[in-house]
Amino acid sequence: MEQLMIELNPQTTQPVVQVKNLAKAYGSNVVLRDVSLSVAEGSVTAMIGPSGAGKSTVLRCMNLLEQPDSGEIVINGHCINAGKKTSPKSLAALRRSAGMVFQHFNLFPHMTVLRNVSLPQERVLGCSREQANEKSMELLKRMGLADKADQYPSRCSGGQQQRIAIARALALGPRVMLFDEPTSALDPEVGVEVLEVMKELASTGMTMVVVTHEMAFAENVADELVVMADGGIIEKGHPGQILKDPQHERTRRFLRAVLER
Amino acid sequence: MEMLKAIAIGLPLTVLVTILALMIGTVVALPIVAGLRSRNRLIWLMSRGLVDLLRGIPPVVWLFMLYYGISIGAVRLSALQAGVLGLGVVAAAYLAEIFRGAISAVPKGQWEASSALGFHRATVWTRIVGPQTARAAIPAYTTFAIGLLKDSSIASTIGVSEIVFMSSQYARQSGSGILVFFVAAGIYILLSVPLGLLSRHLDVKMRKAVAR
Amino acid sequence: MNNLVDVAIEYGPTLLGGLKVSLTLTILSLALGLPIGLLFSFGVTAKNKAFRYISVFFVEVGRGAPALVLLQLMYYGLPNANLTLSSMASACLALTWTTAAYSAELIRGGMQSVPSGEIEGSHALGMSYRDCLRFVVIPQGLRIALPSLMGFAVLLFQATSLAYSVAVPELMSQAYSIGSSTFQYLPVFIVAGLLYAAISIPATWLSVGAERLLSRHL
């Protein structure tokens, strides 16, 4: 198993996200073996690979929804070391820098759409209700969902709910947005709405890490493609290059299955 | 301890009342479930009304009605008979609902497959749906049985010498106050442990049998 | 049947007075017991040993002991510890304990049923543990537990009938004293039973309706 360490040509200064030697196992089941990667500012990184490869686990370790067994994570200068204890303050700071969008949206069903987007701003950033609502409406307008502000999430379609979830994460002003299979739970037609939003977000210069099965997105929007299998990164590089000419047999096998269904 | 012995004398009747009431309840529940699942409007209405009435009136009222209120000539029900009958009939109503829920928990596909295979109604019940219903009903059934164990204490109000009767008698005679009641409570809690374990054991066993 | 109507007319007011006491006892026990139950629902899994042991004790005894035992404990037992309460207060204390114990488990079950994705969502947003509890877990948990809590309230109302044994002048004890003085046991108990049913049955339908309503939105 090759272990690649990316040497980034820094576009600005430091990479926004750095993952160093991440490892995680559930009992005897090793999920991550010595994973390292860097994400440059303003870049879009797509992570692909077969199920169980560890892609989601890496993402979830980035904001510590999963606790890695060993390794280091640095986001926007905030450093978390798996060996040492993390103070609640640094954990909170790290989570504020990284916005996450989940496969199943995870909106709060007992609050209106507006409250879903505003509450985190009030509680995490300490904004006043007026400030939060103003920002929320601005974001919802950008998504074309301003008219849904006073409705409950259950009344919105899946695509709308996911866009609301994206607005909720953006409202906190993160440095990087983490997407965990954002369109996997959506119909293909509906998924397009969400991918459009993600494309627009990328064009504004937001740093993004996207775990996805959407090959078109990976090819057309991503600047960097990371292929994972069996808990490790097997290929890293330019999407067009990898998809056209994969170096690794495993990658070839995976792409064959995905692209020639 | 003297106290423990005095209270434990009530143990056999507590267990007897619980088991008899449970048996009566289980048997009487069957026709009631049939009525609840009937497509005949009148039968369904009567079954529904019966269940609602039995569950809507506190057990103590039923027991008092049977013990003080019923007399055929000079013959009246004994305290034990009234207690078991009253609790049994109320149990029937609760168990009918539990069984009804368990039956609807059996996937529709089982019925469809059975009729496609040409089974008789009776066979479908005894071989296919029945066993699956029993499995689905076990958790609620044992939870109810534990509840019935505690409700058997209501029989003390009409004079059945079970645990609560004996413990309040002891309390009155010895004046040792608080401890008696905690001991009585403790006995009930201890009695419910084997039932809980049995329920978990049966559940695991049956799950293994249908594991895919 | 004539008997029944006569009895109903003659003793109706007395029985209704008893019903009022039963309802008062039910509502008081719910009002006091539910908040304590919410507290215990956290207590049984608390890190603080003292809090946990106390919570587990109260919940296990409150659920494991028949209501009759708790009633007698409060009314006949406490005086031995130099704490003599009125019959209403003892009954209320006992039923509050029962309510707190059962509702602790029902609420805990409700909170555990809150989809973990929502909790992850709030963590990912950087919301504090306390905020997550306050805005996501508790409101959702209570909502989920509501139908079973309503079902419990009906059972509690029926349990107040046992308070006659500690001299509370509720419906059952009124019925019994009328019965024992007139020997018209059956008609009186039938009327009393119907009064209980008149409250229990609609309340049960309400809780079934609530369950249906809730499963639609969540």
From TrEMBL, chain B:
The keyword Ribosomal protein does not apply. Gene3D superfamilies: MetI-like. Residues 7-199 form the ABC transmembrane type-1 domain. One of its GO terms (molecular function) is transmembrane transporter activity. Keywords: Amino-acid transport, Cell membrane, Membrane, Transmembrane, Transmembrane helix, Transport. GO terms for cellular component: ATP-binding cassette (ABC) transporter complex. Signal peptide: none annotated. GO terms for biological process: amino acid transport. The chain crosses the membrane at residues 53-70, 77-96, 178-198. It is a multi-pass membrane protein. Its main location: membrane. The keyword Ribosomal protein does not apply. SUPFAM superfamilies: MetI-like. It is found in: Cell membrane. Belongs to the binding-protein-dependent transport system permease family. This is Amino acid ABC transporter permease. It comes from Arthrobacter wenxiniae.
UniProtKB/TrEMBL annotation, chain C:
The keyword Amino-acid biosynthesis does not apply. One of its GO terms (molecular function) is transmembrane transporter activity. The chain crosses the membrane at residues 23-44, 56-77, 83-102, 144-165, 185-208. Signal peptide: none annotated. Residues 19-207 form the ABC transmembrane type-1 domain. GO terms for biological process: amino acid transport. The keyword Ribosomal protein does not apply. CDD domains: TM_PBP2. It is a multi-pass membrane protein. It is found in: Cell membrane. GO terms for cellular component: ATP-binding cassette (ABC) transporter complex. Coiled coil: none annotated. It comes from the Bacteria. Keywords: Amino-acid transport, Cell membrane, Membrane, Transmembrane, Transmembrane helix, Transport. InterPro entries: AA_ABC_transptr_permease_3TM, ArtM/GltK/GlnP/TcyL/YhdX-like, MetI-like, MetI-like_sf. PANTHER family: L-CYSTINE TRANSPORT SYSTEM PERMEASE PROTEIN TCYL, MEMBRANE COMPONENT OF AMINO ACID ABC TRANSPORTER. Belongs to the binding-protein-dependent transport system permease family. This is Amino acid ABC transporter permease. The lineage of its organism: Bacteria, Bacillati, Actinomycetota, Actinomycetes, Micrococcales.
